[in-house]
Structure prediction request, 236 residues.
Amino acid sequence: MRIDVLSIFPSYFDGLTLSLLGKAQATGLLDLKVRDLREWTSDRHRTVDDTPYGGGAGMVMKPEPWGLALDELAATSSDEPPTIIFPSPAGEVFTQKTARQLSTRQHLIFGCGRYEGIDERVFEYAAALGEVRLVSLGDYVLNGGEVATMAMIEAIGRLIPGVVGNPESLVEESHEDGLLEYPSYTKPSVWRERAVPDVLLSGNHAVIASWRHEQQLERTRRRRPDLLPDEEPTER
Ligand code: 6GU
Prediction:
């Protein structure tokens, strides 16, 4: 998979060379390039923002550098047009399903906005170059798209076949089956007077599997009832 990131703070992404995704890049499973949006400016101050038409607080990202950058990156897209993702608190919410969908694409471009946002015409223009998605991490506000992009690249990157060594570990995680993950324990069997649940020491794999499923349901009911299908309405 090819991923290009456009940002005015490219060094945010230095951490993506670590760990699993670093290895995926070293082995050629992931071709990740982070580019400074200011490469596509031509004035002395490498300006990327300007005041908003209609007035209001803050600055808006100018369309011209975005247009040139997207043209260049999309022109070198292979078979299929790129999927162009703009992290935005005003976007659709990013979930494991979104990560699964995006992990099947050949070429992703992340456009990281800053300030009060990007000139709206950039989104319309980008739609002519590929599929555009505005995507939010959740209902809170970050200073820009960089941290959100890192989270999304990590969620997507680990779903690329071969990136996670044991593919079975992908199956048993929170959200893969719509439930939260079951609790895990390791040695010692008693630690500071707290014992590991007996069932896990029983060696009975069927009983362990059903206990784990119950734990998943119980935790999901308690912590994330919004993930469960609506309960039967109670008789009255
Ligand atoms: Cl994707 N961007 C910004 N700036 N803030 C956010 C977000 C994205 N998701 C949640 N908050």
Summary: The helical segments are 19-26, 63-75, 96-102, 121-127, 146-157, 168-171, 205-223. The pocket of 6-chloroguanine is lined by residues 87-89, 135-138, 140-142, 144-145, 148 (CB under 6 Å). The first strand starts at residue 2 and ends at 7.
